[in-house]
């Protein structure tokens, strides 16, 4: 009976795994679940390379070749050394980043990194104002339009549209300069402290993410939204991409950071699972 079941399943698996050839790597793939219903996978992560955007005071990504090529035994081999700051490219801010007693990366509950999600699109406003602050009204407008409150346990993603500028630092960050003097020249949208406080007081969310370098806007000096959210062990995902491919609700997120013990942040591979 098991053999018959496997023979029946194999053609379905072969069909679902087949992909059309392409010269580009698409952020979307299709996967078959055990019950043969389909999910669409959307990659929300930027690549790590020498183009990766980092905070202007952070160490940038480096990749050095240890060996690449044919060996004296006749097989090909490649290996590299990499170095990177925790906070750069698509990454996670663990609560300890701005909260002395907050969770570090390896302490984050997986159930807060994997689960149902919503998307709030403010790109029409944010693309007209690089210093735009996402407001309480933006959150309540989403609820009015969708006809329900932000569900308990949600991962909230904020779409400003700024990912289209990545990795152009002048457009994405507001400056190409680096170092402490460049901090004052940062211009990109973020979440207002009032909206962050409203989310904590009125809604029970598990995590939050944004397609800019920081959950606080570029001109922030006190990083109040970071402090508000991370003090309550709400992790933040930063430098996301492809949020324009997501619906407003009805999808799931899998956000798995590098498991750095004691880490205040880590590189993040994050994907969305969309229903058919």
Question: What is the approximate shape?
Answer: globular
* Secondary structure: helix percent: 10-25%
- Estimated share of beta-strand residues: 25-35%
With helices defined by DSSP (H or I, 4 residues minimum), what is the helix count? Answer: 6
* Rg, alpha carbons: 21 Å
In whole angstroms, how far apart are the ends? 31 Å
Structural class: alpha/beta
CATH homologous superfamily grouping of the domain at 85-274: Putative cyclase
CATH architecture of the domain at 85-274: 3-Layer(bba) Sandwich
**How would you classify the quaternary structure?**
single chain
Here the CATH topology of the domain at 85-274 equals Glucose Oxidase, domain 1
The parts where pLDDT drops under 50 for at least 5 residues are 1-22, 32-36
Give a quick account of the main beta sheet: strands, pairing sense, barrel closure.
7 strands, mixed, barrel
Strands ordered across the widest β-sheet: 5-11-10-8-6-12-13
Mean pLDDT, to the nearest integer, reads 91
CATH class of the domain at 85-274: Alpha Beta
Number of strands: 13
- Give the topology string: H per helix, E per strand: HEEEEEEHEHEHEHEHEEE
Summary keywords:
7-stranded mixed β-barrel, two-stranded antiparallel ribbon, 276 residues, Glucose Oxidase, domain 1, disordered N terminus, globular, alpha/beta
Give the SSE map.
Blueprint: H1 2-17, E1 28-32, E2 38-43, E3 62-70, E4 76-83, E5 91-93, E6 114-121, H2 123-126, E7 133-134, H3 136-146, E8 154-159, H4 169-172, E9 190-191, H5 193-202, E10 205-210, H6 224-230, E11 236-238, E12 251-257, E13 265-274
Parallel strand pairs: 6-8, 7-9, 8-10, 10-11
Antiparallel strand pairs: 1-2, 2-13, 3-4, 5-11, 5-13, 6-12, 12-13
């Amino acid at each position: 009976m098991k053999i018959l079941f496997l023979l029946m399943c194999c053609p379905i698996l072969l069909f679902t795994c087949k992909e059309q050839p392409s010269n580009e790597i698409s952020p979307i793939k299709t996967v078959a679940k055990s019950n043969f219903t389909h999910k669409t996978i959307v990659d929300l992560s930027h690549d790590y390379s020498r183009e990766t955007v980092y905070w202007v005071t952070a160490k940038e990504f480096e990749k050095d070749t240890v060996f690449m090529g044919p060996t004296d035994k006749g097989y090909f081999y490649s290996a590299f050394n990499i170095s990177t700051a925790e906070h750069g490219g698509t990454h996670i801010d663990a609560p300890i980043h701005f909260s002395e007693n907050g969770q570090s990366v390896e302490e984050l509950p997986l159930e807060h990194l994997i689960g149902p999600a919503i998307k709030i699109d403010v790109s029409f406003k944010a693309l007209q104002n690089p210093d735009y602050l996402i407001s309480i009204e933006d959150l309540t407008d989403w609820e009015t339009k969708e006809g329900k409150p932000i569900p308990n346990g949600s991962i909230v993603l904020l779409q400003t549209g700024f990912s289209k500028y990545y990795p152009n630092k002048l457009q994405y960050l507001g400056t190409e300069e680096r170092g402490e003097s460049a901090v004052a020249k940062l211009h990109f949208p973020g979440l207002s402290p009032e909206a962050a406080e409203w989310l904590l007081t009125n809604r029970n969310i598990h995590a939050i993410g944004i397609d800019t370098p920081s959950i606080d806007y570029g001109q922030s000096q006190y990083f109040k939204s970071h402090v508000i959210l991370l003090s309550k062990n709400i992790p933040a995902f930063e430098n996301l991409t492809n949020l324009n491919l997501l619906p407003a609700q009805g999808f799931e997120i899998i956000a798995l950071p590098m498991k750095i013990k004691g880490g205040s942040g880590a590189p993040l591979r994050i994907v969305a699972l969309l229903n058919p």
